[in-house]
Amino acid sequence: MDFTPLRITTVKPQRSLTFDLYIFFKEQYLCYAKRGTTLTDDKYQKLKVQKIAKFFITESDEGNYQKFLDDLLAETLANPNVNTEEKVIMVEGAASSAVERMQKNPGSESAYRATENAARSLRDVIKNNPDALKKIFGKKVEKNEDIIKHSLNVCALSVKIAENCRCSDEDMDDLGTAALIHDIAIPQLNKNDLPLFYKPKKLLTNDDKRVYFLHCKDALTLLQDKPYVNKNILELVANHEETLSGSGPNKKKKLTKLEEILSMVDNYDKRIITNKTTPMQTLKDMMIDEIGNYSLEMLNELKKVLQTEGLLQ
User: What string of pLDDT tens digits covers the 313 residues of the chain?
Assistant: First the structure.
């Protein structure tokens, strides 16, 4: 039997489950709650105190879980009595689960649909809650969650910049989805090559770049024959390392607005991870180092969003 991970924050107490819920304990999957039952507040809080971050469902229950999550997300985001913190936690959980499912099984249509839904939910919570972006960037994670957290950061900031640039809702949803899945091939790199994700860009040798940039081509290979993935998203994923100077793996110099936003924000967030610099210092470095790789207009849009959203504090 195959199991799919999901975040504990996407399963709320006092809500009837439409699927069997498992935990992983002592090297085995144990059924923790049966479909039709509810988790009590006390039981739910104990799990959080015990730092059990994930539940699991069987692959056959993915459809039931997704319907459960979609309904819960819609209710949570529409409820004026739910504060921004709770909305962010719910949306982050949904997005993290979706990205992890895509990393584990990039050929799964249900995982991809969950990613699309998560991207739309992130756009919704950022658009309608002034402090949401700051709360998303303020979350700390374990090192083994860095790639997923990076994907969420890139999604959230890219969509906000696209909103400021008056992009359409459809374009923002494509951009958000592409941002969540742009690095799904990195976990599939050779174990010895995975540390390249954490190596500062300026220290990458030509051979390092050749190996690391394979994740762009590999992601495209994983997605391109899937009829449910549109061409716009495929192009964004394939070109997320491209720059106006042609220094990316595809040597592309003409970027669409969405491609430039995604590449720039990916660069910004990766710099914070790899260079371990503050957001303020990272922005200053980019305004010097990346002239020619991105337009001054786009770099100023990044600066404006970081300032107005309080992300430089």
Answer: 789 888 888 998 999 999 999 988 888 999 999 999 999 999 888 877 776 778 999 989 999 999 999 999 999 999 999 999 999 999 999 999 999 999 988 989 999 999 999 999 999 999 999 899 999 987 777 667 899 999 999 999 999 999 999 999 999 999 999 999 999 999 988 989 999 999 999 999 999 999 999 999 999 999 999 999 999 999 999 999 999 999 999 999 999 999 999 999 999 999 999 999 999 999 999 999 999 999 999 999 999 999 999 999 7
Question: How far, in Å, are 85, 110, 159, 200 from residue 260 at the CA level?
Answer: 30, 29, 12, 20
Q: Provide the 3-class DSSP secondary structure of residue 251.
A: coil
Specify the pTM.
Answer: 0.93
- What the block records as the tokens of 246 is 């042609």
CA nearest to 238, candidates 253, 252, 254, 257: 252
Class of domain 83-308: mainly alpha
Cα gap 238→221, rounded to integer Å: 9
What are the backbone dihedrals phi and psi of residue 169, each rounded to the nearest 5 degrees, phi first?
-60, -40
Q: Are 109 and 156 spatial neighbours (Cβ–Cβ below 8 Å)?
A: no
* Residue range(s) occupied by CATH 1.10.3210.10 in the chain: 83-308
